[in-house]
Design goal:
five-stranded antiparallel sheet, 37% helix, Flavocytochrome C3, Chain A, domain 1, Methane Monooxygenase Hydroxylase, Chain G, domain 1, 14 helices
């Protein structure tokens, strides 16, 4: 097996940044949790836009994931008596989230990485760090390899295989500012899309409600503050606009609006991410936001510290408080954190069947790179659950069924398909290097991100989406005439890396807006302002849009073709989602 990553080590994959925890229906707290309840919460959290069968399988597997990770030595938090501890996350009224302080993703990744290293040492896996996939090779309709670039030497390499698995994450960086690592990109999945793989629900992007607010135009990324903080932190803003510039300690309790507790009393501060994010934007748009520019709300731990003691809060979230202080210079044990929503996760991805294989035979897609489990909104602590379920339990049972019929059919690296794909890759690199314009790659990326955030971000409407669909091709045209990519392709060249990724973002952004315009309803994180209930909640159109929207590439400059997969609900009844 050959394993590729563009980082200097697989240990630096972006899963390392997941903070809060991983869900499983163990019911250790004896609070009424079950596989069915986790399944139902996930379907409801995704606003009934995911497949029942996939989500139920995920809930069933969740318990095995915890056992697997404990066996690997993952140091989950434990209670005083030694049993594994749990905490609550958004969209659930039970405690089912297993965690390792605020660095759960890092610890799970290290458990996975040590298992990978064991296989590398045994000679069953060959690792290719700092190598980026630039195209997919299709032979006789099957995925049979990739063309990749060594990021250190610039060498273009062909790699043949019996099957290809993409576990390349999401495309949140299309917005420029997001909580994703700077290197996260859409290139692998978008190249597969251009080779015939269907891209499902690209407009389904998640805005996380608890991130450190933007500090200025100099920023290249944003920092997540784990949703787990909302277990003990209370979200509020001043009731009156004139109090927004006061120090939080000067605002008495009677003049504070704990708006999530007020609007959603059943779930309070643990309301789902899409709802919590829109609520934060709403109070800031009313002029009650705090901090520079009025784009922030308070996350206050004073009550929790008074009730539990600072030592307990430090044990639960210590590293998160340290990160916050390093970035803002503020001690969140003494003053409330300031937070604001930011792009965090993408529910859309390549279309896959129940076996996690795309419509291109031999191309499997797992984790955030596929669309399968989260519908229109992912609940907190479900990303790690899906990634590990796909990789540890689903794929090992489904991929061999395809592989059994492919042994001995691996094509030669000199086959016409490999030569043609490598030719396309080289031509694209040469085209980027030969523009020799005057604008930086980042300036185009920032402009695209601001346009998308404004027109296809937390709130969308038809007029704005049509404006975006007019401006994106114009910006893409400017890019190919004015971008400057210094250096050459035969050496380490990070400007060239970024240019290729931004070029793909400039095409993919158009697909996002087409999908958002076509889905003429509100559901989860896809909130069309024309479609909302009387109290401002998402209003679905189940009669016309209870379906997966899967888009097929039709050629450069041609509109993509829409395929609709109807979503049939046999167990869960479609209802207006409510967390009040």
């Amino acid at each position: 097996m050959k394993c590729f990553c563009f980082q200097d080590s697989a240990r630096r994959a972006h899963s390392i940044a997941a903070q809060g925890g991983i869900n499983a229906a163990k019911n250790y707290q004896n609070d009424g949790d079950s596989v069915y309840r986790l399944f139902h919460d996930t379907i409801k959290g995704g606003d009934f836009r995911s497949r029942e069968a996939n989500v139920y399988r995920l809930a069933e597997i969740s318990n095995n994931i915890i056992d697997q990770c404990v066996a690997q030595g993952v140091p989950f938090a434990r209670e005083y008596g030694g049993l594994l501890a749990n905490r609550s996350f958004g969209g659930a009224q039970v405690s089912r989230t297993f965690y390792a302080r605020g660095q759960t993703g890092q610890q799970l990744l290290l458990g996975c990485y040590q298992a990978l290293c064991r296989q590398i040492a045994a000679g069953t896996v060959q690792m290719f760090p700092q190598t980026e996939m630039l195209d997919l090779v299709i032979v006789e309709g099957h995925a049979k390899g990739i063309v990749a670039r060594n990021l250190c030497s610039g060498k273009i390499e062909r790699h043949a295989a019996d099957t290809v698995v993409l576990a390349t994450g999401g495309y949140g960086n299309v917005f420029y500012l997001s909580t994703n690592a700077r290197g996260c990109n859409v290139t692998a999945t978008y190249r597969a899309y251009k080779r015939g793989a269907l891209f499902a629900n690209p407009a389904f992007t998640q805005i996380h409600p608890t991130c450190i607010p933007v500090g200025g135009e100099y920023q290249s990324k944003l920092t997540l503050m784990s949703e787990s903080l909302r277990n003990d932190g209370r979200v509020w803003v001043p009731k009156r606009k004139e109090d927004r510039n006061k120090a939080p300690g000067e605002i008495p309790e009677t003049d504070r609006d704990y708006y999530l507790e007020r609007k959603y009393p059943s779930y309070g501060n643990l309301s789902p991410r899409d709802i919590s994010s829109r609520a934060a934007k709403e109070v800031c748009d009313e002029g009650r936001g705090v901090g520079p520019g009025g784009r922030g709300v308070y996350l206050d731990f004073a009550d929790a510290i008074k009730r539990l003691g600072e030592h307990t809060i430090r044990e639960r979230y210590g590293n998160l408080f340290e990160v916050y202080e390093k970035i803002t210079g503020e001690n969140a044990y003494k003053v409330p954190m300031r937070i604001y929503p930011a792009v965090h996760y993408t529910m859309g991805g390549l279309w896959v069947d129940y076996d996690l294989m795309s419509n291109v035979p031999g191309l499997f897609v797992i984790g955030e790179a596929n669309f399968s489990d989260h519908g229109a909104n992912r609940l907190g602590a479900s990303a790690l659950m899906q990634g590990l379920a796909d990789g540890y339990f689903v794929l090992p049972n489904t991929l061999p069924n395809y592989l059994a019929g492919q042994m001995g059919k691996r094509p030669s690296l000199d086959s016409p398909e490999f030569r043609e794909t490598e030719k396309d890759v080289r031509a694209r690199i040469e085209k980027l290097l030969n523009v020799n314009g005057t604008r930086s790659v980042d300036s185009f990326h920032r402009e695209l991100g601001l346009l998308l955030w404004d027109k296809c971000g937390m709130l969308r409407h038809e007029k704005g989406l049509r404006e975006a669909l007019k401006k994106i091709p114009e910006l893409r045209e400017q890019f190919w005439h004015e971008v400057r990519v210094p250096g050459d392709g035969d050496d380490l060249n990070q400007s060239l890396e970024r240019a290729g990724r931004v070029a793909d973002f400039l095409e993919f952004a158009e697909l996002m807006c087409i999908d958002a315009l076509e889905r003429d309803e509100s559901c989860g994180g896809h909130f069309r302002e024309e479609h909302q209930t009387a109290d401002g909640e998402a209003l679905r159109d189940d009669e016309n849009h209870a379906a997966v929207f899967a888009w097929e590439f039709q050629g450069n400059g041609q509109p993509p073709k829409l395929h609709r997969e109807p979503l049939n609900f046999e167990t869960v009844h479609l209802t207006q989602r409510s967390y009040k």
